[in-house]
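Minutes, project check-in

Agenda point 3 was the complex the collaborators sent over. CS summarized: two entities, 464 residues total, and the question is how they sit relative to each other. Sequences were read into the notes so everyone works from the same version.
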Amino acid sequence: MTTGQEHTVKAFDQDIGQLRGLISQMGGLAEQAIADAMTALQRGDAVLARQVRAKDKAIDAIEAEVERLAVRVIALRAPMADDLREVVAALKIAAVIERIGDYAKNIAKRVPLIHTGPDRIEALSILPAMAMLASDMVRDVLDAFARRDADAAAEVCQRDNALDDFYNSIFRVLVTFMVENPKVIGEVAHLLFVAKNLERIGDHATNVAEMVFFAATGRYMGDADAGETGGK
Amino acid sequence: MTTGQEHTVKAFDQDIGQLRGLISQMGGLAEQAIADAMTALQRGDAVLARQVRAKDKAIDAIEAEVERLAVRVIALRAPMADDLREVVAALKIAAVIERIGDYAKNIAKRVPLIHTGPDRIEALSILPAMAMLASDMVRDVLDAFARRDADAAAEVCQRDNALDDFYNSIFRVLVTFMVENPKVIGEVAHLLFVAKNLERIGDHATNVAEMVFFAATGRYMGDADAGETGGK
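CS then shared the predicted structure for the full assembly.
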């Protein structure tokens, strides 16, 4: 199957480089989807919202490509230890980014259902800041993956608390708004889900951070004794 | 590493059997978590809700065990084609079941926040039927995985539409209830999320069904031409 150790190593490095490239490309598309979905929501821009939904297929296609490539790499190169963990992490991270793309798509889907302008709902003006926080977590955790940086991954996890606080504030603001404006409860309920989607994006970025940490160290985050597979 | 082809095959069969066993165990725990969370919600049983949250750690632990075992199997046995796809599927399915467990945990977390009894909210009496539908999808898709049954997996996907309809009905019922009972909007908003969690459990069962289909056939569901890796 191979013509020598060096050839194999080089081929593996190329493969892993390609995997990283695909993950980075997916991450970029997911960040853009979050930003565009929020812009569409703020502007009530149904056309942009439709574009976000259409572009989600590109994210799905790259995930399928990552899976095909990862399986081929494992089958052909039989990577061991650190290398294997990284291929497995790529496989799992791609699945999570696909889901982050779905959350952005879900936000975009709600755009045509929300007609109450930002001037009327305080939370609608806070949401973009929350989206930025979530999107930054996605970007930074994928940077951590690209650099195999366990510390940077751990740092992203810590930011999830701030996002949760954001979500809880927005929940209270929206419920108060519903109490005061019963006629738009249906619309505002959709905003609750938008906030929840952003909170879930943060959870998923945290999941990715845990995978990056494991791929880089062979240990589970917060599980200092689990050195079974050997640390770096 | 191995003492012969037969030895390797037998060891692989044992490994895959162990993986299937772990996945089945996880699935059972996830189904129980959904059922217990709904019972706790119906009865306002905070003790049972706490138990659901505590037991989620067991699901997480099995997921970590599946990952360790799958990586070891890939590294030691270098499975090919169908066998490799099955190991990869086990890895991904375990990650999804872990997430299904999280949704059950999220439902349980909301129990102490909801005091409005089932006699007052029509949707609260419909939710258990919706939960049953979601839980059955989880059980049946894991049975399909255990039997490598692509047709059964495809059938589970079709049921997701019924679950979505259920969700849309409940959404409307709850919004109407909020309009008529503005004092309990905060509580009822939590029920909206419970319904959404159940709908997401169905989405995840559908994701698993797609993975089972791919593992069994080497093709992506609904992608008849993608025979690149060869069908069975």
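Noted in discussion: Confidence is low (pLDDT under 50) at residues 224-232 of chain B.
Follow-up: revisit at the next meeting once the mutant set is ready.
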